[in-house]
Amino acid sequence: MGVRLVKQRTFQEVINLIPSEKEECSAANLVQVPEIDLLAEISQSPRNLSEVDAALKAKQMKTGVDEYLKTRPQGTSFLTDLKQKLLLSPSEAARAGT
């Protein structure tokens, strides 16, 4: 059994291999798509360009969110209270122009 060399592809190259809506999506077309775990990008954490941490810290919610994501405890009111915590107060909404 010989070694099969696989060309390392970029994410965009993989996307370009996937048939478009206009093309027939047959098994023959999909055979060309390499395994996703062979992509170099798969080992990189996604980049988060928003200020989520700062927003959560400002609302004093970061610890609660982190703890919930780590444990997902049953019977907690965290998710119930989350919507209310995320809403802006009337004065904050006025300042933000919303």
Automatic annotation (TrEMBL):
Q: GO cellular component terms?
A: CCR4-NOT core complex; P-body
An example GO biological process term is: negative regulation of translation
Q: GO molecular-function annotation terms?
A: molecular adaptor activity
The record, for InterPro entries, names:
Not1
Coiled-coil portions? none
User: Gene3D superfamilies recorded for this chain?
Assistant: 1.25.40.800
Q: Could you tell me which PANTHER family the record lists for this protein?
A: CCR4-NOT TRANSCRIPTION COMPLEX, CCR4-NOT TRANSCRIPTION COMPLEX SUBUNIT 1
Q: What is this protein called?
A: Transcription regulator
